[in-house]
Amino acid sequence: MPRKTESKTLERLALGYLDRFDSSVENLRRVLVRHVNRARERGEAADGAEQAIESLLSRYQENGLLDDARCAANWTTNLRARGNSAALIAQKLQRKGFSPEVIQAALLGGEHSELDAARALVRRRRLGCYRPAEERARHREKDLTVLARAGFELDTATAALGLE
């Protein structure tokens, strides 16, 4: 006898996910829809699941549990601190389901600049001045390439490496 995917199950799953991860509305929707699709593949009834998902999402947004702007700002701050460029951050946020307006607002806000992020990457990867002095000149182009692949512009990369 097929079991029905109930809204209580979806709510338990959603709260468990939000307990572990900060999520956008669209990302949580994808997680819940994926669960419903797997239940259907197992032969479980999932009538009204889409409506239950939308109801949960709207309730969580009203209660402040789901807030795309807050979540995007947190992601941006953490990714900048790790040395990610604005272009790379925008790609990651877009994959997580944030709207272009929310992404733009998150990139404009925050305490870390593009140069700070590039310097964090230089420090983390031990490039430029973090290399032994005798190896710096030999690895100059390689260091610039690492920063270019990370999405930083040439001016930002040279400033982060302390080059002229």
Give a written overview of the molecule.
By secondary structure, the protein is mainly α. It contains ten helices and no strands. Helix 7 packs across helix 10. The longest helix is centred in the N-terminal third of the chain and has 17 residues. The model has no long low-confidence stretch (mean pLDDT 90).
Short description:
This protein has 164 residues and is mainly alpha-helical. It contains 10 helices and no strands. Helix 1 (7-20) packs across helix 2 (25-41), helix 1 (7-20) crosses helix 3 (49-63) and helix 2 (25-41) runs antiparallel to helix 3.
Descriptive tags:
164 residues; mainly alpha; 0% strand; 69% helix
Describe the global form. Answer: elongated
Order of helices and strands: HHHHHHHHHH
Beta-strand segment tally: 0
Beta-strand content estimate: under 5%
**Which structural class do you get from the secondary structure elements?**
mainly alpha
Mind describing the biggest β-sheet? none
Give me the oligomer status: single chain
CA-atom Rg in angstroms: 22 Å
Number of helices: 10
Mean pLDDT: 90
Low-confidence stretches: none
Helix content: 55-70%
**Distance, first to last CA:** 72 Å
